[in-house]
Design brief:
globular, mainly alpha, 270 residues, two-stranded antiparallel ribbon, two-stranded parallel ribbon
Amino acid sequence: MDEWWNRITPKVCDDAGGRGTLNEWRSELQAHLAACISVRAEERMAVEIARAKAKNATALLRFISPANLDSRLASCCRPAGSQSFGIVMEVFMNGGCVGEISRGTEDQQCLTQWLVDNSRKQIPGVLENLHRLDSDLSTEFGRSLYDALILYSRQTLAVEVSDKLVFALSALESMLLRDSNEPIQKNLGERMAFLIGQSAPQRKEILKNIDETYKIRSAFVHHGQTARHVDTVDRFLVNAWTAFSRLLDLAPKYRTKSALIGALEDLKMS
């Protein structure tokens, strides 16, 4: 943020009031990341384009957040001003009279302390793969993976476990299924198993986890039951993140999603 601020500050007019306002903003924005978007367009259209690009860039950045791997966490990584926190108010009564009123935000176990540099060190190369994908969407595989990652990123913002499952499974299905005519659970489980499993026991565990995860999601979608089974969900979230990380590695190799699926099917037969 400081580097970006230093670039734009000299271009601001010397009006004392304007510079004073900027300095006030700087104190609020310190320690935040800045999305720098270059757009040549009419002002209103430029703002819309810049906001959309910043939103997607932030969504991709959340791929390296710890919130991907823990169903109890939600990420606060969004463009400033778009955060959505529930506001709650309590009125405490004493003997029929109002004694005290409190107002605040709901406790959403939000991951507020997250250092991007630490994540880059722990999972080297992933941010570079994301940048490469975003810079080149010339193939059908790349475009499909980009859209899937944007959808997948919504699970990091979700507070409810059931919402995390819906977003993560939908994103995986969009990449690992040919179309809606295929048996969903069987094909997704087997293709994930061969995509990230390194041995027969690992693949069996992935298949078992996918089966249990779909049961949890089905209980919510079809019967309204609250999604729990935290251990199962957390194992699934780790598998889902690993699958997308592997797909990012494979992005330069495949031009179409069908080519990837064909290779996974061949691997099953080998």
